C-alpha cells in the first residue's frame, strides 16, 4: 500500500537537497491550486511539463496486463468534461543524464513502477525512463522518492533544456579519444534550472559523443551536439570538442551544422550558456512549429548565429562552475569490481555464443566487456529492475546505463564472468540476443499512450520482431545488421528518419473506413552519429507492412553488391524501384465484411476508427475526385524525391510545391469545384478562406502548423532551391498532404464540410 504523500515528505526530508525539496513542495501547492481552479490551466500545463508530467492517451485504455483503464476507475474514451486530462492517468518522465544509473536507483524505479504505474518502466529513445498510468496527485511523492536517490524530473519536458544524452560506452569505447562522461555530467548540472535557459519557445536537446563514427550519441540530430576530439599542440595532446548546433528530427528534420571544429573544455559550458541566451532572446515564441533552434539558424545562417553567440559569450560574467569540475576529471573515473580476465571455454553452447556475438563489446580496457540487455519495446518489469540491480552489484561496481536504442548496458564485466552473467540475465527474462540489430526494433509509445499517435508503432514493432526472430539464423548477416525504427506519427520520437528502414504512422480512408497505414522511410543512416536522414516513399496499410519489409530486404539481398551497406544500396538503385515493389500493397483492399482484421491496428482487436464513417455522407463523385487529386499529389511529391536523387534540386523543390497545391485543391474541391491548380493563387486563397480561416483544417494537436507550410511555400514559390532546401520542402509537402488526409477524414466523420465556410 502506498504511504501518504505527507509520510514520504517527512521520511525523506533529510535525504533531499533543500532546493529540490522546495521545488517539489511548490509543485504540490500548484497542484492543489489547480484543483481549486486558482491557477490558469495554460500556466499549470507548462509547470507540470517542466516537472516531467504529461497527459497521456487514456482513451485507448489498454494496459500492459490487459486491463482496461476504466476498470481501474479511470474514465473511458467517452468521458468529457473540463477536468478530463487529469481525472485520467498520465505519464511521468524521469531524466537519466547520459543514461547513468545506480543499483539503488534501479530498485527505487522498480518500487515506483509497481506502486504507482502499470507495472512497467519504459526506456525512451533519449535515455529517460517513463512511468505510465500514474495520477498527477501522486507525482510529488514519486518526485521525492526519486530525489532521495539523486534523480530529478525537473525539465524532463516543456520549453527547457531536456535530458543531456550521451553514448552509453563513453569511457570504455576503443574508438574514443577520451571519456566525455564528466563533461556531460557537468553540463547537466550547470544547465539544470539555469536562469538563462528558462525563456525558450520550445525544447533544447544536448548530446555528448565519444567518437564521430558510431551512432551512440547521435550528435548530428541535436540542438547541441558535442563530440570528443584531440589535437597536437607544442608536442602535447590537447583535449577538445567538435561542436555542432541546430540538429533535430521532428516533422521536418535538420542536420546539425558545425559551430566549432575544436572547442576547449573550458569553453563548452559558457558557450552553451551563450547559446541558451541567444535562443531565449531571438528564438520564435509565437509559432511553435518554427520555435526550435534549427529554424533560428536557418533564418540567420551559421555565420550570423555564431557571431551572435560569441558576442553573448563575451558579455557573460565569469562563473567558477565553468571550469571547477575540470580539476576532478580523473577522480571520477569508473573502476571495475573484479580484475581483468580471459574468455572461458563455451563448450558448444550456441545460444550463449550468439548472445556474446550480438550483445557484448570489448572495452578499451583489456579483459573487460560491456553487455547490452536487450529490452523488447524498451519495457521491463519491477522484478526485472530488481534483478538488474542485483546483477549489476554482483558483477560490477554498479556501472549501468540506458541507451538511445531503449536498452541497458552493463559496463566493466570481466570476461570470465560472461557465462554466469548470461545465466543470471536468462533467469529473469533479460537474455534476448540481437542488440542493435534488425530484431532490436525501436518504437515510440504510439497509440498505446501518446495523444499524437496515429498508428500502433509498438504493435507493429512487436509483430515485426516476432516474425524476424522466427527466422532465426536463416537471416542473412546483411539483414541482421539493419536498423528498423518506428514512430506512431510524423514526429520521429522513434527516430525513423535515421534508420535503414523507418516507418511512421499515418491514416487513410478505404471503402469508407479509416485504415491505419505507415509511411515507409528510406535513405537514413544510423552510423556516423546519424549521418543522414531518410524520406518517405509510400504509405502502406499497417497489416501489409510485414510484407513490405520482406520485399525490401529480399530485393536488397538479391541485388546488392558484395559488402554493400543498405544506405548505399538505396542510393544506387534509387527509391523509385523500391517503391514499385510496394505499389500493389497500397491497392485492392479487401471488403470489410470479409476481412475486418485488415481495418484494425496491430495488437488492437477494435476497429481502427471510432466506427463506420458512413458511406452516405459525401457524394460518390466528390470522393472519387478527391482521391484522384490526392493520388496525383502523392505521386508528385515522390517524383520530387527522384529529382533530388538525380541531382536536380530546383526541379525537386518546384515539384514539392506543386504537390502541396494539388493537395490543397483536393480539399477545396469538396466545397468548390471551379478551381484549377494552374492558378495557385486562387487555390491558396480558397483554401485559406474555406479551411484555414474557419479552422476546419487545424489539426487537433498541431493547429495551423501544416497550413503554414503551404502559405510559406506559396509566398516563396519563385525561390532557387539547394539540395537542402528542396529536401526540407519535400518533408513539409509530405506533412501537408498527410494533414489534408486527416482533415478530410474529420470532415467525413464529423460533418464539418461547409461549417462556417463560405459556399
What does this 3D model show about the protein?
The chain has 759 residues and is α+β, with helices and mostly antiparallel strands. Among the domains are: 5-147, no CATH class; 172-331, Sulfite Reductase Hemoprotein, domain 1, CATH 3.30.413; 350-427, 2-Layer Sandwich (Alpha-Beta Plaits), CATH 3.30.70; 616-759, Nucleotidyltransferases  domain 2 (Four Helix Bundle (Hemerythrin (Met), subunit A), Up-down Bundle), CATH 1.20.120.330. Helix content is 39%, strand content 14%. The protein contains 24 helices and 20 strands. The strands form four sheets. A five-stranded antiparallel beta sheet has the order 1-2-5-4-13. Helix 5 runs antiparallel to helix 12 and helix 7 crosses helix 8 (268-282). The longest helix has 28 residues, at 723-750. The protein starts with a helix and ends in a 9-residue tail after the last helix. Residues 59-86, 610-624 and 753-759 have low confidence and may be disordered.
Quick structural gist:
With 759 residues, the chain is α+β, with helices and mostly antiparallel strands.
Write the layout of secondary structure elements.
Blueprint: H1 5-12, H2 18-35, H3 41-50, E1 53-55, H4 84-87, E2 90-94, E3 100-101, H5 103-115, E4 121-123, E5 129-134, H6 139-147, E6 165-166, H7 181-191, E7 206-209, E8 224-233, E9 236-245, E10 257-263, H8 268-282, H9 293-300, H10 302-315, H11 350-359, E11 360-362, E12 368-373, E13 379-380, H12 382-395, E14 400-402, E15 408-414, H13 418-427, E16 442-443, H14 457-471, H15 477-480, E17 484-487, E18 501-510, E19 513-522, H16 527-530, E20 535-541, H17 545-559, H18 566-573, H19 575-582, H20 620-645, H21 649-668, H22 680-692, H23 705-715, H24 723-750
Parallel strand pairs: 6-7, 7-8, 16-17, 17-18
Antiparallel strand pairs: 1-2, 2-5, 3-14, 4-5, 4-13, 8-9, 9-10, 11-12, 12-15, 14-15, 18-19, 19-20
Helix pairs in contact: 1-6, 2-3, 2-6, 5-12, 7-8, 8-10, 9-10, 20-21, 20-24, 21-22, 21-24, 22-23, 23-24
Amino acid at each position: 500500500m502506498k504511504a501518504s504523500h505527507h509520510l514520504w515528505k517527512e521520511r525523506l526530508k533529510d535525504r533531499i537537497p533543500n532546493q529540490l525539496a522546495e521545488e517539489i513542495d511548490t509543485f504540490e501547492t500548484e497542484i492543489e491550486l489547480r484543483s481549486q481552479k486558482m491557477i490558469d490551466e495554460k500556466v499549470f500545463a507548462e509547470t507540470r511539463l517542466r516537472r516531467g508530467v504529461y497527459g497521456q492517451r487514456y482513451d485507448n485504455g489498454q494496459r500492459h496486463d490487459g486491463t482496461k483503464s476504466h476498470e481501474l476507475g479511470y474514465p473511458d474514451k467517452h468521458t468529457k468534461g473540463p477536468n478530463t486530462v487529469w481525472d485520467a492517468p498520465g505519464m511521468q518522465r524521469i531524466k537519466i543524464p547520459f543514461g547513468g544509473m545506480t543499483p539503488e536507483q534501479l530498485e527505487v524505479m522498480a518500487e515506483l513502477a509497481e506502486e504507482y504505474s502499470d507495472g512497467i518502466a519504459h526506456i525512451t529513445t533519449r535515455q529517460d525512463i517513463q512511468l505510465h498510468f500514474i495520477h498527477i496527485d501522486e507525482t510529488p511523492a514519486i518526485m521525492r522518492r526519486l530525489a532521495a536517490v539523486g534523480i530529478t524530473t525537473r525539465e524532463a519536458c516543456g520549453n527547457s533544456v531536456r535530458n543531456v544524452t550521451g553514448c552509453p560506452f563513453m569511457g570504455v569505447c576503443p574508438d574514443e579519444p577520451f571519456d566525455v562522461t564528466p563533461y556531460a555530467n557537468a553540463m547537466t548540472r550547470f544547465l539544470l534550472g539555469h536562469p538563462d535557459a528558462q525563456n525558450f519557445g520550445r525544447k533544447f536537446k544536448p548530446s555528448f559523443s565519444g567518437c564521430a563514427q558510431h551512432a551512440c550519441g547521435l550528435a548530428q540530430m541535436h540542438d547541441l551536439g558535442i563530440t570528443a576530439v584531440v589535437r597536437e599542440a607544442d608536442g602535447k595532446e590537447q583535449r577538445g570538442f567538435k561542436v555542432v548546433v541546430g540538429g533535430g528530427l521532428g516533422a521536418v528534420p535538420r542536420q546539425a551544422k558545425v559551430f566549432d571544429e575544436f572547442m576547449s573544455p573550458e569553453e563548452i559550458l559558457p558557450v552553451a550558456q551563450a547559446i541558451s541566451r541567444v535562443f531565449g532572446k531571438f528564438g520564435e515564441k509565437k509559432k511553435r512549429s518554427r520555435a526550435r533552434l534549427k529554424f533560428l539558424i536557418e533564418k540567420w545562417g551559421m555565420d550570423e548565429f555564431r557571431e551572435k553567440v560569441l558576442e553573448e559569450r563575451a558579455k557573460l560574467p565569469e562563473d567558477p562552475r565553468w571550469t571547477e569540475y575540470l580539476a576532478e576529471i580523473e577522480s571520477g573515473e569508473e573502476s571495475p569490481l573484479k580484475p581483468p580476465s580471459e574468455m572461458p571455454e563455451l563448450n558448444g553452447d550456441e545460444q550463449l555464443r550468439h548472445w556474446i556475438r550480438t550483445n557484448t563489446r570489448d572495452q578499451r580496457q583489456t579483459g573487460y566487456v560491456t553487455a547490452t540487455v536487450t529490452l523488447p519495446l524498451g519495457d521491463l518489469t519491477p522484478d526485472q529492475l530488481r534483478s538488474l540491480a542485483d546483477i549489476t552489484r554482483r558483477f560490477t561496481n554498479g556501472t549501468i546505463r540506458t541507451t538511445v536504442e531503449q536498452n541497458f548496458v552493463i559496463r566493466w564485466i570481466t570476461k570470465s564472468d560472461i557465462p554466469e552473467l548470461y545465466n543470471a540475465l536468462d533467469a529473469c527474462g533479460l537474455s534476448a540476443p540481437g542488440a542493435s540489430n534488425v530484431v532490436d526494433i525501436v518504437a515510440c509509445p504510439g497509440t498505446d499512450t501518446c495523444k499524437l499517435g496515429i498508428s500502433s508503432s509498438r504493435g507493429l514493432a512487436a509483430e515485426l520482431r516476432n516474425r524476424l526472430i522466427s527466422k532465426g539464423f536463416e537471416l542473412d548477416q546483411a539483414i541482421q545488421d539493419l536498423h528498423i525504427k518506428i514512430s506512431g506519427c510524423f514526429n520521429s520520437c522513434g527516430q525513423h528518419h535515421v534508420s535503414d528502414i523507418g516507418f511512421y504512422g499515418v491514416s487513410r480512408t478505404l471503402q469508407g473506413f479509416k485504415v491505419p497505414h505507415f509511411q515507409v522511410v528510406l535513405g537514413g543512416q544510423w552510423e556516423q552519429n546519424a549521418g543522414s536522414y531518410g524520406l518517405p516513399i509510400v504509405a502502406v496499410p499497417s497489416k501489409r507492412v510485414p510484407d513490405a519489409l520482406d520485399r525490401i530486404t529480399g530485393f536488397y539481398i538479391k541485388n546488392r553488391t558484395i559488402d554493400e551497406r543498405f544506405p548505399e544500396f538505396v542510393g544506387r538503385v534509387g527509391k523509385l524501384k523500391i517503391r514499385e515493389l510496394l505499389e500493389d500493397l497500397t491497392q485492392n483492399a479487401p471488403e470489410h465484411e470479409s476481412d475486418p482484421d485488415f481495418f484494425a491496428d496491430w495488437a488492437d482487436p477494435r476497429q481502427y476508427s471510432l466506427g463506420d464513417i458512413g458511406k452516405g455522407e459525401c457524394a460518390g463523385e466528390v470522393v472519387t475526385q478527391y482521391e484522384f487529386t490526392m493520388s496525383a499529389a502523392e505521386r508528385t511529391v515522390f517524383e520530387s524525391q527522384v529529382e533530388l536523387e538525380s541531382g536536380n534540386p530546383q526541379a525537386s523543390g518546384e515539384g514539392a510545391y506543386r504537390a502541396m497545391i494539388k493537395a490543397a485543391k483536393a480539399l477545396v474541391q469538396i466545397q468548390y469545384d471551379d478551381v484549377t491548380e494552374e492558378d495557385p493563387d486562387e487555390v491558396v486563397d480558397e483554401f485559406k478562406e474555406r479551411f484555414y480561416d474557419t479552422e476546419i483544417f487545424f489539426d487537433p494537436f498541431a493547429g495551423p502548423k501544416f497550413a503554414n507550410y503551404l502559405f510559406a511555400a506559396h509566398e516563396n514559390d519563385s525561390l532557387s532551391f539547394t539540395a537542402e532546401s528542396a529536401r526540407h520542402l519535400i518533408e513539409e509537402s509530405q506533412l501537408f498532404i498527410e494533414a489534408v488526409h486527416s482533415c478530410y477524414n474529420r470532415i467525413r466523420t464529423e460533418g464539418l464540410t461547409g461549417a462556417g465556410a463560405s459556399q
